[in-house]
Specification:
This protein is of the alpha/beta class. It has helices at 2-6, 43-57, 75-85, 100-106, 122-127, 132-146, 164-173, 201-213, and strands at residues 10-17, 61-65, 89-94, 112-116, 150-156, 178-183, 219-223, 242-248, 253-255, 268-271, 276-279, 296-298.
Amino acid sequence: MIRETTGIRKIKMLYLQLLYRCNFACKHCFHGERLQYADAYTAEQASNLMRLMRQHYATEAVTLLGGEPFVYKDLPRVVRYAKHTLGLQVEICSNGYRIGPRLREIAPCVDLLRISLEGVGATNDLIRKTGSYAAALEAIALARDLGVPTGATLTVNRYNISEVVELAGTLAELGVSQLKLHQLRPVGNAARHPDMLVTDPADYERLREQLRDTELGIEVILDEDLSEDGAPVCAVPTARSGIDRIESDPRGALTMSCKAVGKDSHAFWYDKDADEIIYRPSASDELTLAIPDVVYGNA
């Protein structure tokens, strides 16, 4: 249905939110009140969607998210199906909190473990959860010992913007290959914490200068909304033959633009029972509104 509506024939990666449930309630989380929702994929439904994407859109990789994917009871089953049956590259995005036993179980099937951090030490713990910083670094160290490549993400906000370079250095020492920086958008919990928003563009300029002037030892990928020129203005692709990603939330909503995630602006839906993608256009969907995607570039 995506191909018939948009002409898109290839979708490189599926971002699959397995469940809303999480052991954190981060102040910036775009899920907001949905963290309390019971919606989740069964292992069979998750496997069916990955298979459909592989067969019909030549999808090469899956990123498993939540909520927190390591609290999903069937994570090993989904990971093994993705890797062994479908031959997908498997990435998991996690808060890294007490994931050791399960990580050991699935390590041979994981191509990248990406840990979310929101600053150094107390700053991270203030935004995420007490003890979460130490736990995240422990998870990264364990992944390194298990031979699992690691990356990290950080959502830039008023409290952590001055700590990005320091965090990058710490991550580089642990062998983390890449730090991806996102702009904070006022969605979900962040809408209830406007104090976290960066309101002075000069703060972003200082961050860019620090990143340019420091030998980091780690690749830093920047959401182009954080760049000097801002993100390119471009509509959701209706004439392109391929896109980099599509994201499914635990209800089955499919979203092509990161800027539409969490806003119920999806035009497509994965029907779990029928095992098919359906088109549900509306006056506020991402195609009608031409919501641009997030574009990333090197810092």
